[in-house]
Amino acid sequence: MKEKILVTGGAGYIGSHTTVELQNAGYEVVIVDNLSNSNANVIDGIEKITGIRPAFEQADCIDLEAMKRIFDTYSGIKGIIHFAASKAVGESVYKPLLYYRNNLVSLINLLELMPVYNVEGIVFSSSCTVYGQPEILPVTESAPIQPALSPYGNSKQINEEIIRDTIHSGVSCKSIILRYFNPIGAHPSAEIGELPNGVPQNLIPFLTQTAIGIRKELSVFGNDYNTPDGSCIRDYINVIDLSRAHVVAIERILENKSNAQLEYFNLGTGNGLSVLELINAFEKATQVKVPYKIVGRREGDIEQIWANPGYANEVLGWKAVESIEDTLRSSWKWQLKLREKGIM
Ligand code: UD1
């Protein structure tokens, strides 16, 4: 068994897939999750896939005393992968303080406890949202950070600054900041996947819920952008590819593969796909029709962004390999599984 890793938000969408990949790679995982946007059944799904039940503690990362108890109980945690955060862009506009409290205090607690418990490093979930609308595409890690368009986006930027300043203050911990593009898809077993609360705000869950008949039609937010077909372009990355990058990142820290104390990587495929192209690709991959209509632009959307993942490819030796067709089929299989289980 390799080192013990604390995965905050490990019952969530990306956290659960990363736990699977960590366990497959031989790491011992302790999940802490407050279940505010997830379900304890996810732990069963992880166990079904890997044959190993990760340790699970229901707690909130903003609760310093609870976090201390967890570090005491599971002594010898060597690394942290910090997913736990509030992530609905729209909601953050109406509840900024909730977003700042959740997303800032949890990170501060973890950074304070790391030296106390000899934790060597932290991998942090950031977002390509920090680049705003980049002038040069595909976007590299050295592109300028733009003013955030929402409290959610701002919380990610402040998180990055908190990590940077903490590392610069001379602590001995290391950090890798991963800037995700648009994670989609589900584990091919359909034992775990994305389970949004209420009406989905993100494209794929809304699309699969429309395809299965829960929603009447998908609204495509704008077809008058300056892109070939007029709809927005994003870099959709398979959640398993994304999860594997976390395993590589934590390994890089724990095995001292780099002298750098702080590194940033873009996690994307390098391919931009428009909303209309994505709908097409889904229909082709699954042979299922998606009723849609074009509506006005959504406030705060950027026109187009996709990654230059070259730095991650070269330095981490990691690359996104799953095809968009397989990825979309996995999303559909997951939606069918939710129906079968009577969840949706
Ligand atoms: C957003 C955030 C990102 C955050 C992510 C997860 C921004 C700029 N990006 O990504 O930081 O990590 O959510 O919550 O704030 N679309 C439709 N119809 C729909 C839903 C979406 O046409 O019903 C379009 C959007 O206009 C966009 C694309 O699909 O062009 C993807 O949207 P979405 O899945 O919400 O992700 P982002 O907005 O890219």
3D architecture notes:
This protein has 344 residues and is α/β, with parallel strands linked by helices. It folds into two domains: 4-184 and 236-267, Rossmann fold (3-Layer(aba) Sandwich), CATH 3.40.50; 203-233 and 270-340, UDP-galactose 4-epimerase, domain 1. The protein is built from eleven helices and 13 strands. The two termini are 38 Å apart. The structure holds uridine-diphosphate-N-acetylglucosamine.
SSE diagram, text form:
Layout lengths: L3 E5 L4 H12 L3 E6 L7 H10 L4 E4 L5 H10 L3 E6 L6 H6 L1 H21 L4 E7 L23 H18 L5 E7 L1 E3 L18 H9 L6 E4 L11 E2 L1 E3 H16 L7 E6 L5 E2 H12 L5 E4 L14 H7 L7 H17 L4
The chain binds uridine-diphosphate-N-acetylglucosamine.
The site of uridine-diphosphate-N-acetylglucosamine has 21 residues, from helix 7 and strand 8.
- Architecture of the largest domain, CATH level 2? 3-Layer(aba) Sandwich
What proportion strand? 15-25%
Number of domains: 2
Tell me, what's the shape? globular
Q: Helicity range of the residues?
A: 40-55%
- By CATH reckoning, the class of the largest domain would read Alpha Beta
CATH fold node name of the largest domain: Rossmann fold
Rounded to the nearest angstrom, the radius of gyration is 19 Å
Quaternary state of this entry equals single chain
String of helices and strands: EHEHEHEHHEHEEHEEEHEEHEHH
Bound molecules: uridine-diphosphate-N-acetylglucosamine
**Cα-to-Cα separation, first versus last residue:** 38 Å
The CATH superfamily title of the largest domain: NAD(P)-binding Rossmann-like Domain
Q: Total number of β-strand segments?
A: 13
Instruction: Please mark out the parts with pLDDT under 50 across 5 or more consecutive residues, or reply none.
Output: none
Structural class: alpha/beta
> What does the main sheet amount to?
7 strands, parallel
With strands numbered from the N-terminus, the spatial order across the biggest sheet is 3-2-1-4-5-6-11
Number of discrete helical segments? 11
